[in-house]
Write a structure and sequence with these properties.
Blueprint lengths: L1 E11 L7 E6 L21 E4 H9 L5 E5 L7 H12 L4 E5 L4 H5 L2 H8 L3 E4 L20 E4 H7 L10 H7 L6
Parallel strand pairs: 2-4, 4-5, 5-6
Antiparallel strand pairs: 1-2, 1-3, 6-7
Helix pairs in contact: 1-2, 2-4
The structure holds iron/sulfur cluster (SF4).
The site of iron/sulfur cluster (SF4) has 13 residues, from loops.
C-alpha cells in the first residue's frame, strides 16, 4: 500500500519529547489561516511511496519515537495505521498532530483505529488568533495535548502531563534517546 507524504525528518526535538522521527503526511483539508506548512495541503503534492519503504527508513534510526504530522495524518488513516501497528511491535512511542478534534476522530470509524495506536494526540485546527510562541508542542492555545490511552480507558479526555526533559529521560531511559 502506498502513502502520500511530504517529508520524513529525523532527530526532531520540537514535535514531542526527546529525539523523534517525524512523518509529515501530504494532504490536508483544514486549510487553517496562518498554517506553517501550506505545501502539505494538496493531495496531489509530495511523493507516493510504499508504506513498507517508510517503515524500513524509520526503523533504521536509533530513535524509538515517531510523530505523525502533516498535512493531516487522519486523512490517510489506513496507511498511518499500518505504520503505527508495525512501529508498536518495536515499542515506539507515537504522537500525532491532527486538525480534527479528539471527539471528531472518536466518532469517525475510519479514523478510530489509528487513534487507538497513538500515545499522545495534539488535536484541533491551528487558530491564528490563539497563536503563541510560548506554548510547548502546539501552535495555538485551543489545541490540546491528550493522553490517548488514558482517555480511551476512562472514556473522557485526560490531558498529557508534560514532563521536564530530565524526568522524561529518567523514566523512559533507553527507549527514546
Ligand atoms: S491542520 Fe495543520 S497542516 Fe492542516 S491547515 Fe491546519 S495547521 Fe496546516
Amino acid at each position: 500500500m502506498k502513502i502520500r507524504y511530504s517529508d520524513l525528518i529525523f532527530d526532531s526535538i520540537v514535535d514531542g519529547p526527546s529525539l523523534r522521527t517525524v512523518l509529515f503526511t501530504q494532504g490536508c483539508s483544514h486549510h487553517c489561516p496562518g498554517c506553517h506548512n501550506m505545501k502539505t495541503w494538496s493531495t496531489e503534492g509530495g511523493e507516493l511511496v510504499e508504506v513498507d519503504e517508510l517503515i524500513e527508513k524509520i526503523l533504521a534510526q536509533r530513535s524509538r519515537a515517531l510523530t505523525f504530522s502533516g498535512g493531516e495524518p487522519f486523512e490517510q488513516p489506513t496507511q498511518c495505521t499500518l505504520i503505527a501497528k508495525e512501529l508498536k511491535k518495536h515499542q515506539f512511542n507515537l504522537w500525532a498532530y491532527s486538525g480534527y478534534t479528539y471527539e471528531q476522530i472518536l466518532s469517525d470509524p475510519s479514523k478510530l483505529e489509528l487513534l487507538q495506536h497513538i500515545d499522545v494526540l495534539v488535536d484541533g485546527r491551528f487558530e491564528l488568533a490563539k497563536k503563541s510562541l510560548t506554548l510547548q508542542f502546539k501552535g495555538s492555545s485551543n489545541q490540546r495535548i491528550i493522553d490517548v490511552q488514558k482517555s480511551l480507558k476512562h472514556n473522557e479526555i485526560v490531558l498529557y502531563k508534560l514532563l521536564e526533559k530530565t524526568e522524561f529521560r529518567r523514566k523512559r531511559e533507553g527507549i527514546y534517546i
